[in-house]
Amino acid sequence: MDGLETLRAAHLTAIRDASDEGALEAARLAAIGKKGEVALKMRELGKMTPEERATAGPALNALKTEIGAAVAARKEALGDAALAERLESEWLDVTLSPRPRQQGTLHPISQVTEEVTAIFADMGFDVREGAQIEDDWHNFDALNIVPEHPSRAEMDTFYMAPREDGTRNVLRTHTSPVQIRTLQKEGAPVRFIAPGRVYRSDYDQTHTPMFHQVEGMAIDRTITMAHLKWTLEEFVKAFFEVDNVELRFRASHFPFTEPSAEVDIRCSWQGGVLKIGEGDDWLEILGSGMVHPKVLSNCDIDPAEWQGFAFGMGIDRIAMLKYGIPDLRGFFECDLRWLRHYGFSPLQVPTLHGGIGG
Rounded to whole angstroms, how far apart are CA atoms 152 and 157? Predict the structure, then answer.
């Protein structure tokens, strides 16, 4: 077939001179596309004699293969050149001084947990933690909470799928199971706090399905309500950083304490600003009481020999009071603007001598 060598040279030159992938694709189509010159040449095979086809057919196929290989090679070369250009333009001198980085902030929950821990540690309280998924016995029964108690209803508690025997685990509704397990394991005397996440089915401006609590317990032979009152007064003075504080203990009922008391703190709301330790208003901050004898018995501790107090408060709630955070839901919305406003420096470690507050 005449003109194949000229055809070959022309198309290989066009492929070699293609400056980008668009030009390369145009050269490929002009050569071996459906309407390319090689394809048109192959259509002429039907008009040839068998002897001519025997010579022209293999030659055209070889040319098509050679052009395809040339296109692939040029495409790879263009890719390598593009990569080299990117590497040249995007290189970074790692010996240069780094760009200034924004410093992260510590979440208010983490900060307040550290503040609470520092205060109670100064009073000799250890820290205990436990699992967030508990069984019915540790979360309810051991705490003298009867089966018909409202807190055990499914509208208030997150239950897990039932087992084959019908029993179910729950997302713990308080950190009291940590107290039960600690008493079972360590016996008496003990003095510790148990901070952590807890779960209840509630959601509004002051409630969320997941929130944080810290509970405290002290068990010994001669502990009284007076020790509880002193402990809470010292905590409030240190946490809110005030010299004088007045607490009001109101009789209440909790299944796991007897007697039980809700604790209010004297305060004022002048100009919408909370001031602790002054004024004519009262603000509820926690629940407390003497540990119920049945709770001690459930943990194999003789209530005739040992007694003690327990208390519990919401970490999120006291954080809102101290730092003027109006809506509890902001703690969990992952808004960086909120965190930058209310967050704390990670280097600002709370200490009693250096200051608890931010």
Answer: 6
Q: What are phi and psi of 295, to 5 degrees?
A: -65, -40
Sequence-distant (6+) residues with CB within 8 A of 164 are none
Residue located via tokens 């004088």: 244
The residue to which tokens 């706090």 are assigned: 193
Q: What are phi and psi of 102, to 5 degrees?
A: -75, 135
Q: State the Rg of the chain over Cα.
A: 38
In which region does residue 289 sit, left (phi positive, over 0), alpha (psi from -120 to 50) or beta (all else)?
A: left
Q: Which two tokens stand for residue 128?
A: 């205990």
To the nearest 10°, report the CA torsion of 21, 26, 32, 35.
150
Record the pTM: 0.67
Could you tell me which of 221, 198, 196, 223 has the C-alpha nearest to residue 209?
Answer: 198
| Residue position matching structure tokens 């327990």 | 310
Which superfamily, per CATH, for 108-342? Bira Bifunctional Protein; Domain 2 (3.30.930.10)
pLDDT (tens digit, 9 = 90+) per residue, 94-134?
A: 777 766 666 778 888 999 999 999 999 999 999 999 999 99
- Show Cβ contacts of residue 323 under 8 Å, excluding neighbours closer than 6 positions: 108, 342, 358
Helix and strand tally (H, E) in the chain? 11, 10
Q: How far apart are CA 7 and CA 28, in angstroms?
A: 13
- Residue with tokens 């080299």, as numbered in its chain: 84
Beta-strand pair 247-254/169-171? unpaired
